[in-house]
Amino acid sequence: MTEPTPVPDAAGGGSRTATVPPEPALPAPASKQASNGHRQNGAPRTEATPEPGADTHVNGTPAAVPTAVTRADVRSGDDVEAGIVALWRSYGESRDQSQRDRLVLHYAPLVKYVAGRVGTGLPAHVDVADLIQSGIFGLVDAIEKFEPERGLKFETYAMQRIRGAILDDLRSQDWVPRSVRSRARDVERALERLGAKLQRTPTDRELAAELKIGLAELRELYGQLQLTSVVALDELIAPNKGGSSLAESLPDDAAEDPVASLVDQDSRRQLADAIAQLAERDRVVVTLYYFENLTLAEIGKVLGVTESRVCQLHTRAVLRLRTKLNEQSEA
């Protein structure tokens, strides 16, 4: 059997009655009567107060707004902020390393954010993890030198210190002087301006006039800028086409050429076939002369003929080999 439950009217005046079926798995919530605040069945009745402007009815039943959860969230955020302020105050008094480490852990996301921003315009071989490592030192330095009593915001101060630490570490690893880097940027900007103005690639004389330097000084500057165009061997040259590295594209002069090796093997096979088709005496002359390194006189002693005769046999054998090799190549 169901119990009529008074429900506030949508217009705010009076009440209407809705039939709400009981839920067997959960205890039935008590509701406040519209006319008075008397108890029913010995239990006090409560009602969640809807926020202004909120929808007070969902499928014919009043919808309660969880204002307590929202207030708890606000209080938890305030508690965290108060805890950080207390931690700063305690660290300023004691300078304890464990408290400093807690501050480092709390502000660590700032390092990742700044490292990502700095690493956007850097070459591909620069690892963001190295930038984060450098930024951690900047964060520690910012925490040790920050003075909360001045009323400044720590995040703004720390981001500058983190960025400075990352840039200092990058400059320490750079083998090119800063003056050369600055001149390189000037040349790049001048090339962009002249290219946009002339709608073509400017000449060296035009570039020197734009930079207000002489042509000889510009060429000397080109020699200095060659230091800035060094490319890392492990940098990808075609990241979208198989991912081969630049090191894999460099030729190895000591390596054996596979094409030349195959051509040499085929030439040896054809020569062996041609020698096998010679007459026996011609084949002996060729074998002793080219493979055994005997002279014509020594071959004549082996065959029992004169040196001039061996010369004739050698010439005839070479002509026949050349003819047979030409026939094989044409076939």
Automatic annotation (TrEMBL):
The keyword Iron-sulfur does not apply. SUPFAM superfamilies: Sigma2 domain of RNA polymerase sigma factors (SSF88946), Sigma3 and sigma4 domains of RNA polymerase sigma factors (SSF88659). Keywords: Cell projection, Cilium, DNA-binding, Flagellum, Sigma factor, Transcription, Transcription regulation. Residues 130-143, 295-321 form the RNA polymerase sigma-70 domain. One of its GO terms (molecular function) is sigma factor activity. It holds the Pfam family Sigma70_r2. PROSITE patterns: SIGMA70_1, SIGMA70_2. GO terms for biological process: DNA-templated transcription initiation. InterPro entries: RNA_pol_sigma-70_dom, RNA_pol_sigma70, RNA_pol_sigma70_r2, RNA_pol_sigma70_r3, RNA_pol_sigma70_r4, RNA_pol_sigma_FliA_WhiG, RNA_pol_sigma_r2, RNA_pol_sigma_r3/r4-like. Residues 1-63 are annotated as: Disordered. PANTHER family: RNA POLYMERASE SIGMA FACTOR FLIA, SIGMA FACTOR F FLAGELLAR. Belongs to the sigma-70 factor family. Sigma factors are initiation factors that promote the attachment of RNA polymerase to specific initiation sites and are then released. This is RNA polymerase sigma factor. It comes from Lentzea flaviverrucosa.
